[in-house]
Automatic annotation (TrEMBL):
GO MF terms, alphabetically ordered: metal ion binding; metalloendopeptidase activity
InterPro entries according to UniProt: Beta-lactam_resp_regulator (IPR052173), Peptidase_M48 (IPR001915)
Protein name: Peptidase M48
Necessary cofactors: Zn(2+)
Domain Peptidase M48: 128-184
Organism encoding this protein: Amycolatopsis taiwanensis
Length: 340
């Protein structure tokens, strides 16, 4: 197995990020949110699969598995299908990532339970909970019908129309189910830390999506921009796991709200270019992972030929350059062995 087949899917998120960072402000926020979130998920699946395949290849060397699969471990090693150091490295990496994912899941569950326990103590007025806290904070909480949490400290810093704009932003997060997007992004970033820059851009797109929905509802982009800026300046502590008005790259969000919206006809070519680059990199990662799995299957079939019943024609154990041809030959020979 080629080391590049493992390294390339791991590094492709870093290649996708510059294109995504450039394209995200130029794409309609809903498009950018869906595209970048899906890219995070697919790139993470591809990188995880790239780590799993060498581990599976290494497991085929175990006598019990090799015998059950009809494969000679010696033939697998000779064919280059299995690299013991690579399998050990990938196994260690998967173990570290699994532990990290488990711990993140436990932290989220503890945060979710503690938050709802605390919120249940407060009265709920129209889905909005006002906590008597001087610390300025505002965020949307999924679950139990969805709730918007705003502190008294933040409300006192905003004017009435700015409060309405801020609540419209948080309501948009709940209505559009952005917590599902954020959960997928967070899981992707845990399973492949190199996805984090792309995940940050995806979170920015989600905030821009909520901004545009809120601006349309309020009818005044400047009021919303002022509310977002004030909330960001007043907030000193970010709330984990929950979308909020002070999240994302606030200066870029405010600039986008204050800028004159460009017609979609102008953005279309740019949007298509950005989408093509990100989708191309994502498809490349998925293709590389699929090729790794296909190559492993071919190598196992080639190695299995060493245990073919007598009477069949001997097949040369393949090197990488001849894998495809050898695989076809092995499949033909297996049919001959079955017929004889």
């Amino acid at each position: 197995m080629d080391v590049a087949e493992v390294i390339v899917p791991l590094l492709l998120p870093l290649i996708a990020w510059p294109a995504a960072h450039w394209a995200a402000p130029r794409l309609p926020p809903p498009w950018a949110s869906w595209l970048l979130t899906a890219s995070c998920v697919v790139l993470t699946i591809a990188s995880t699969a790239a780590l799993v395949v060498p581990v599976l290849a290494g497991l085929t060397l175990l006598p019990a598995i090799a015998t059950a699969d009809g494969v000679s471990p010696a033939d697998l090693l000779d064919s280059g299908a299995v690299s013991i150091p690579l399998a050990a490295f990938c196994g260690l990496a998967l173990a570290v990532l699994a532990i990290s994912a488990w711990r993140s899941g436990l932290r989220y569950r503890a945060w979710f339970r503690a938050l709802h326990t605390e919120l249940d103590r407060h009265s709920r007025d129209g889905g909005v909970i006002i906590v008597p806290d001087r610390e300025p904070v505002a965020f949307a909480v999924p679950g139990r019908g969805g709730r918007i949490v705003v502190s008294g400290g933040l409300l006192s810093a905003l004017r009435p129309r700015e409060r309405s704009a801020l609540l419209a932003h948080e309501a948009a997060h709940l209505r559009l189910r952005h917590h599902v997007f954020l959960g997928a992004i967070a899981a992707s970033c845990v399973l492949n830390p190199l996805v984090r820059p792309l995940g940050g851009t995806a979170r920015f797109a989600l905030e821009r999506w909520a901004d545009e929905v809120a601006a349309h509802r309020v009818g005044d982009r400047r009021i919303l921009a002022t509310a977002v800026a004030k909330a960001a300046l007043a907030t000193r502590t970010a709330v984990s796991f929950a979308p909020g008005a002070a999240g994302g790259h606030v200066p870029r969000r405010v600039a986008a709200l204050l800028a004159t919206p460009r017609p979609r006809s102008v953005l279309a070519p740019v949007a298509l270019l950005g989408m093509a680059v990100v989708l191309g990199v994502t498809a490349g990662a998925a293709g590389t992972a699929l090729d790794s799995a296909t190559d492993l299957h071919a190598d196992i079939e080639i190695a299995r030929q060493g245990l073919c019943p007598p009477g069949g024609q001997e097949t040369m154990l393949g090197q990488a350059a001849y894998r495809e041809a050898a695989f076809v030959a092995v499949r033909q020979q297996n049919r001959q062995c079955a017929e004889s």
